Amino acid sequence: MSYSWKILNLFTTDQTNSDGVVLENAVIKVRWLKTLTTDDGIKVSTMGNDVIDATSATESDFIAYDDLVETDVIAWVEAVQTPKRVETINANLARKAAEKDVTTRTVPW
After folding, report:
1. With a cut of 70, which residues of the chain have pLDDT below it?
2. pTM of the model
3. How many CA atoms lie within 13 Å of 92's alpha carbon, on the beta-carbon side?
4. d(CA 88, CA 10)
5. Which residue, of 16, 36, 50, 56, is most buried by count of CB atoms within 10 Å of its CB?
6. Nearest to 54 by CA among 28, 20, 21
7. Dihedral sign, CA of 45, 46, 47, 50?
């Protein structure tokens, strides 16, 4: 099985970092979609949101909004996930995949 991420929306505002530098259009929230693909090809997804805090970013480490790429944002999302939250999300995806693998049938009579 494998997991993949897709970034759906970014929410931005100007944030001042700990050095007093204003970081324009800093990403403060990310809406994402995480997809589980099972070895049998079943795909299930879940959406979520995470808050991102740019106040600790130095001016040289800050990535301007127009220079962002999806892999940067995915790395931020993964960095703010607690082990418990990852476990919960992955368990919910596994449950959805198991439910999708069940065939609903009409009664035979």
Report:
1. none
2. 0.86
3. 12
4. 23
5. 36
6. 28
7. negative
pLDDT at site 55: 92
- Residue 38's contacts (CB-CB under 8 Å, 6 or more residues apart) are 1, 97, 101
| The two three-digit tokens of residue 42, written as one number | 């079943």
Instruction: Return the domain boundaries, the chain.
Output: 2-100
What are the tokens at 3?
């997991």
Give backbone dihedrals phi and psi of 2, rounded to 5 degrees, phi first: -145, 155
Tell me if residue 107 falls in helix, strand or coil.
coil
Which parts of 1-109 fold into alpha helices (H)? 70-80, 83-100
pLDDT at 100: 83
Residue 59, burial from CB neighbour count under 10 angstroms (0-12, 13-18, 19+): exposed
Residue for token pair 């970014």: 10
